[in-house]
Amino acid sequence: MKHSLLLFFTFLVSIAATAQVHPVTGRVTDDAGTPLQFVSVIEKGTPNGTSTDVNGDYKISVKPGAILVFSSVSHGTSEINVNGRNAISIVLSSSAAKLSDVIVVAYGTQKRATVTSSQVSVSTEDFKGQAVTRLDQALQGRASGVQVTNTTGAPGGDVRIRIRGANSVSGNNDPLYVIDGFVGGDFNVINPDDVEDIEILKDAAATAPYGSRGSNGVVIITTKKGSRGKTQLSLTSRLSSSKIMKTYDKLNAGDYAETVNAYDAAVGINPYFTADQINGFKTNGGTDWQKEIYQTAIGQQYELGIDGGSDKTTYHISGSYQNLPGIIRNSFYKFYNIRSNINTQLSDKFSTYINFNGFIRNNTNTFLVAGQANPVAQSIAWSPTVPVYDENGYHHLVKSDPIGSVGFNPIAEITERLAKTNSYNANIMGGLLYKIIPDLSLNVQYGVDYAASEYKNFGDLNVSPEGGYTSRSTGTSIGLQNTNTLNYRHTFNENHHLDLTAVLEVQKGTWEGFNVGINHLIYPSFMWNNLSLGTAQQPGSGTTQSSMVSLFGRVTYSFKDKYLFSGTIRRDASSVFRDKNKAGYFPSLSLGWLMSKEKFVEDLNIFTLLKLRGSWGLTGNQAVGAYSTYATYKSATATYTDNSNVPAIEIDRSENPDLKWETTEQKNIGLDMQFNAIGLRASVDYFNKDTRDLLFWVGLPMFTGGGGIEKNIGEVTNKGWEISLGATPFNTRNFSWKTDFNYSVVNNKIVKLTGEGDIFDDPDIGWGMTSQPEFVLREGASMGSFWGYKYLGTWKPKDQAEAALYNAVPGDSRYADLDGDKAIGKNDLTIIGNGLPRYTAGWNNTFTYKGIELNIFIQGVFGFDKLNFLYGAAMANGGDFRQAMLTDIKNRYIPGVNETSDIPAFSGTTANYIQSSRFVSKGDFIRFKNVSLAYTLPRSILKNIASIKFFASVMNLFTITHYKGMDPESANTGSGSDAAQNIDYGAYPVPRTFTGGITLTF
Amino acid sequence: MAMKNKYYFLLIWLISLSGCKKFLQEDPQGILVGDIALSNENGLEAQLAGAYSPLMQAWSSGFASSAQIGLSMGGDDVTTHPVSNKEDFRQFDQLAVTPADARADEVWSGCYKSIQSANNIISNYEKVTGDQDHIKEIAGEAFFLRGMCYYYLVRWWGKIPLVTSANFDPSMLEMNSSEITDVYKLIEDDLKKAEEMVGDVKLAPGRINKGTVKAYLADVYLTESGWPVKDASKAALAAQKAKEVMDNKATYGFDLYQGDFNKIFAGGTPEDVFALHTDHVAISNVYYGMSGMPGDEGGWDDYFAEINFFNDFPAGNRKDGTFLTSVNDGALQWQNFATKHPYYRKFRIQSADSINYASNSPIIMMRYANVLLVYAEAEARSVGPDASAYDAINAVRVRAGLNPLTPGLSADDFIKAVLDERGWEFAAEWTRWFDMVRTETVAEVLSHRSPNENVKLLGDPGDKKNWLFPIPGTDKSKSPNL
Prior knowledge:
The structure holds two protein chains of two kinds. By secondary structure, chain A is mainly beta. Chain A is built from twelve helices and 53 strands. Chain A has a 22-stranded antiparallel barrel. In chain A, strands 10-15-16-13-14 form a five-stranded mixed beta sheet. In chain A, β22 and β23 form a beta hairpin. The two termini of chain A are about 25 Å apart. Chain B is mainly alpha-helical. Among the domains of chain B are: about 40-165 and about 180-200, Serine Threonine Protein Phosphatase 5, Tetratricopeptide repeat; about 290-360, no CATH class. In chain B, about 45% of the residues lie in helices and about 5% in strands. Chain B contains 18 helices and ten strands. Chain B has a two-stranded antiparallel ribbon. In chain B, strands 3-5 form a two-stranded antiparallel sheet. In chain B, α2 (about 40-50) runs antiparallel to α5. The termini of chain B are far apart. At the A-B interface, α5, β25, β26, β27 and β31 of A face α1, α2, α5 and α18 of B.
């Protein structure tokens, strides 16, 4: 309501009067009615100004047509047209900076109505009622053009966030995070409860200010600043329970034993099980390995926040603790965080602030490798006929299942291995704001980011052929940043608004790491705590340094707040490139037309806002690490005796002195609309991103010594649409319904690859079952294309003669013989699917009835495939699997019994490729991501407590999908790469989580 | 005025920063860049370790896993599981190898990575200052490793790219494969250089001496006398080189080991002409142990013996040491194993923890018995089966618990006897397939396979194109001219 009031003032008060100077008085207060001191009150376009006193009162003499600018460090800026009045009191909300008029943009703020770039705001209001434990959950599905994927279901695990698709093939497509001005921050370290505002910058006009790091979009996060007056303390406690959503349908022990014997008979080896054994298994059912490895995970979270301030100083101090076990036994995540944001007004001209954020994260067994050491895969690979423990209570047959998996016992995998990552981070951002003259300000910021991570790894004797192993490694990085922003704002002749910004920014990053490992442990119980008691492997260490110097300038001009223009240019000079390629220039231009201010639109009486905007710009992506242009060696080890080893060196990377930035040219056209009726609002954007000089680690042929070379290889485009619609169909005193929907389409295409034609990308997820690269980059195709054989079903009896040409019999697998050479070979490999999603949708609904708030949030991701290696291995004996494990195998082709099935028969002549279209399926899904209910007790029954709120929510309530795997969202390809994604080989499944909690505010 | 001063301050600060060019220069620390790597003797030694290292990276490159046994499965001595997860092994046994075979990639990439490191030493050793004798030894070993790697490559793949430079050049992507004779020429040249440069004593058990080089040279010459080079004149050279080793066996520390036959495979006997050593800490041997054990005792069934090969194998201590015919203290005989085949005892881990898939077992590349049998065959091919040829084969036979060979055999019969002896002596030691190919007896030998073998031939054993493997697909797609 308060915001609407402000808007009311801003929009409806108009018409200038006489030219006489007259006094204006009033009081400035915050949301809670607390007076705000030191708010500067300036007559716009003049040096005339004052500030509020201890009671929030001010007095100023102005011309009747003047505009008063109220601005406060903590509470943003608001402009009011005086319109001849003598008394103007206003409320400056702490979120006024966003909700009223002004939004945060790159290196500054701007009036929302005059913004000409494509930028979306996500407010804390959008997710405050939900069990959001990390910032990615706040972004998921809530902004058009933003794709958030949980590539793992492990607590505190990896997440892939993409803004307008993926430009870079060589890896990093993560957006750039700017946290309170620190460029290149880590969103993981932010407690969502500390967040004031999130701005998502999408088009080049919005991101070009970040130059060589702007290609992937930018997320600007502003944390809370506290408010003057009464101290407010809030405490939130949550309890959650997570469970696996879906498991595979595995054969029970009796069916399994029969299947194994059928298989042995078909391929001519001795049957493994006797009839007695089979009957025994039928009665006792065997081991359910999946049940053995999963658990119901009970998690706890506590958050404490204190906000307050004196006349000159405000503070926001908070702490949080999370203890979240994972649904796989012995995996968990702990998070400790403390933040202190302090702002002080030193004088009329100077103010200063310092934000400190520190956290500790502890991930234990949350990272799952693909294949052999993966408990999810091994829980499928192990025979149900093998008991978990032997008669001595020991993990049975740890090293290998006699006929099933060649990997370790899955329970041993999770109980006898320990992989812990402790991450420590401290981010300190301090600054001095100096108002040189009312229109000219200087902001000098310094930032220090310290991030250390420590990785400890242990494997007990049973899961290590080397008599146990353990290792420790640490990595420490320090980032330093200095940003100096000079801003000049002035209105000439009332109609010409000019805003000039100049920035000088210097950054430097240093990384150091070392690692030591031992095996043949004398005392395994010591784990990594005494590395002298074992046999040492070659230790390792390393360091890198990189630095960047940037200059940035921006001109924003608007005429009558109707015709809008903005132009920017940034020059980045980076240490990672050589000579003439060191510096890059990244310009942008944007234009806007606020049509709703035109008479002919006003006359329609339909729109409250109608804005057409267009932009063009260049941004970059470094996408390579330090020293990438040099030929380098890597360290290796050789042994000349049976009890010692010697250090070795091998050539690793070839030189490429011509390496340069990846550059993205982006064009955008958008239309923003707000209607009179039911608060209807809509935005439509069309964008075209063209990324050139793609950086890629090109693997060299093995015969040249292998390794690779960092190269600029080609061009990728991402074109698409984004639509967001919002409305408040009901808004009565007791009941309201607010709904927001967004939908995005991104079409990715590799336009050009220089040189050698197809480029293969081999993350080697399916080690041992995929001898060919798993992904291909091909001109005309989209990134993320799976490479493999095209499966045509089984050879049927009528095709017997043709099958014989392929050394196959009816019932064997049949693959497309693309080169027609009557053999399935390398030339028959083709693109068999694509893991890059094309469409994303989000639908958020909030219903309120009196104190009850219900939020339903649905997310959809469409237009992508998944290559399910786990299903493939379990059906066709790939990798560690030596038997078929899933109930689907019962529907296989059986000569004389079932000759229509496309699941191949057990046969000595069939060749089953896991890397084939047989195991590719659509990954499309719609997921009820969040359903939450909150109830705030009526104020009337509370005494010493400001508010009490109860809430309960379910994340991932249910999922609609045709995908056969456990979870369409998670994958083993990780969040890092886009050229390689959506291979599932025992990914940590995303769980269903119930959360209940309470927030007390004093 | 105060304000002006501040502007000046800012301006000065701006200038001082942008003037600082050094701020943007890279100065890599702790990373080997360019020529520094081989600037001294120790760097050269580390690069030589980098030539050995790729030969023993289990499941990734070289000879430390069962890949090399897989590549030799075309022989009648080894086969694999008919289905299970053994597709990549089976292709060799079936004589139908595809360019997609991952086991082939393992050996191919290991040899070529070793060649790259050797090339780097060969191109740079003359510039390195330090103990010249040591440098010469290192360079000699590099020449040997390059020659040896090409020798394996040319026998398995035939026409291959001949790379003699360590540094990548884009023109390499346009390379053609070289003629087989050109590859052998390089192998001979390299081994001859190594012969001059390498000393009489191994600097470590896992390295080589002059005798090792001569033994390989003898083996190369003998191979060249057969298919595909078919230069009969090479047999005499083979006999001569083998004899040089035999005559100086004390100098080189080589001899036939007369203890328990099975102990040879634990390594460290005088039998080792060349053995890569593993420490089971940084480097492990993973083809000993579970890889070659029957599933009935928890093994992986990667490779095991062919039935008729086992049946025809002459009884004696060598047969007992070579094969595993029962488990559970004899309770389960090989006929009742799931796969109905005997297994190889020689690759069992001989330390306390025998049921494991990794160990510090040696990777024996060549044994002294090979020198003797190369001599016997080469002598018979060049001069005839004289007394020295008989002495050489009989030394091996007597140790195996067999009677000396019948005297007075014709040259052909004698050679046939040597080839049989080689098959038995080196069963599963990846020599049988090479012998069958060079003597052009693939079809004849394989015609004796048992009808009970579950893995059937798909490729025609008489078709010579099935005797060589296709260039690995991943390389061919990057370098289409190969």
